[in-house]
Target: asparagine synthase (glutamine-hydrolyzing)
Amino acid sequence: MRMRDSLVHRGPDGAGLWIDSQGRIGLGHRRLSIIDLSEAARQPMANEDETLWVAFNGEIYNHTEIRCELEALGGHRWRTDHSDTEVILHAFETWGIDCVAKFRGMFAIALWDVRRQELWLIRDRIGVKPLYYSLHHGRLVFASEIKALLQDPEQPRALHEESLFHYLSFLTTPAPQTLFDGIRKLPGGTWLRVRADGTMEERRYWDVWDHTSPLLGETDEAIAARVLEKLRESVALRKVSDVPVGVFLSGGVDSSTNAALFSQGDSQRVRTFTIGYDGEYPSYRNELSHARFMAEQVGADHHERLLSLDDLIAFLPRMIALQDEPIADPVCVPVFYVSQLARRHGVIVCQVGEGADELFWGYPSWKTSKMLEEWNHWPVPSLLKRLGLHGLHWCGYGESIHYERLRRGILHQPVFWGGAEAFPEALKQRLLSPRLQRQFRHLTSWEAIRPIHERFQAKAWEQGPLQWMSYLDLNFRLPELLLMRVDKMSMGASLEARVPFLDHEFVQLAMSVPEAVKTRGGVVKTLLKQAVRGVIPDAIIDRPKQGFGVPVQEWMQGRLGTLMQDTLADFCDRTDILDKAAVLDLVCRQRDPRSWYLFNLALWWKAYLA
Model:
């Protein structure tokens, strides 16, 4: 029960517990009531003869269609009116684990098969919902958050040092590892089967390349029309709810499209929520005016909140508690506050815009990465590349991203290692303590993404640089950083976030589009803009791209910088993880906003391992 109730923020509307008669397995659940609010829909839930038990987090958006299919087949007795949880049980009864192929949604599922004495843990295709597990002292424990596993007094608490090494590259840890040694996370699109005798089998049940149909020979106009049709369908599915649903609105193309499509055919005003800051900063300028403009266009019931440095500092302890392990993106702060804003206005579910940039070449920096990937394949002699590498090092750029990219080219590795790179390998090595420098002197973070690249090379129907960039971020940065950030912060406010751009059918369509169509004219997100022109105003479509950010660089000049310096100095004094001189140089002398990544790590260590 302690494990279950440590997640009360994820489910404030009720609690359930089931333990089998032999005491060999138990399922606990905290409920956030969204679909079928009746008591009959509470979890853990069993089928009619109690040979299957399930606890799950998420939503099956097409549960009504699956239920109709099951009813036509016959042989099922239903206890609820329209619970998607019960659909999972009867679907598994009918089709076994292959039932997952029918689910359109986001989910982390734990299903116990009494007859076969098997436990199934299943994470949705994209990894929108997290699922952690740990095997120790002869037992397996699992949960939606690590903090629940830590309620087990016998759960070891120790740093997984190789994951730390990769964290310094990617702002998060690559699945299946976490920063806790012995605690793992199930990768997206994967299931884990655990038999009663302790044998375990993990399998990837979905990869986007197995479900693409290359759109060769179709006009850009026809492809854009298909994109809009499928996106409209995805947004409509994510309106399914028995509680109020809203939209996070920044005023960019993605969130504006969500708001516009959401409002179509709806008699009620869409409720929109926006976060800004209490001033204008060079590193981040408020988008409030654009969000207000878009809210007016769709007749939204619009709400906003301005954040200050005080809000950020006050939230830090709560942020670390919600993260479980560092999610070193300061955008965690505004995501929590906009979720809290929505919840305080009675909204329980919100649609968010994650995924569009990764699928449609939406980041300006990706133009540079694509160009460098293409240059990397030019027939330039290796000797010239090595001379260039030595030249950069001699000129003092040995720790720069330019040096790092050239080094990768010499090693025949992709230039692009993800949309959220933190520290290049040389700088990362200098930041590590002498002990860890020695331990990892022959390791690079290429090892973390090599398996993804091998799948890409084996399966991708088109092997251009943009397809690699999208595929890598679909498999790593999105599930383990951006979506983890959204899930942990929104659920921290007891609010569910839904991601229309990452509906798996929409993703399959987007990854079926030839690279040349997505990059036509050198304009970022050109295909998506073409698809939604007429749905949202041209003024939104044609304005310069601006990401969702936090003015950390400016706030570091004052109290935040002092707090970061003191926290990191104490962390370095008390651990043998980072080099104090290198860290304080980054924070104090350079005032580098990347110091946030180390600060997040130090706060986590103090909360969980000190």
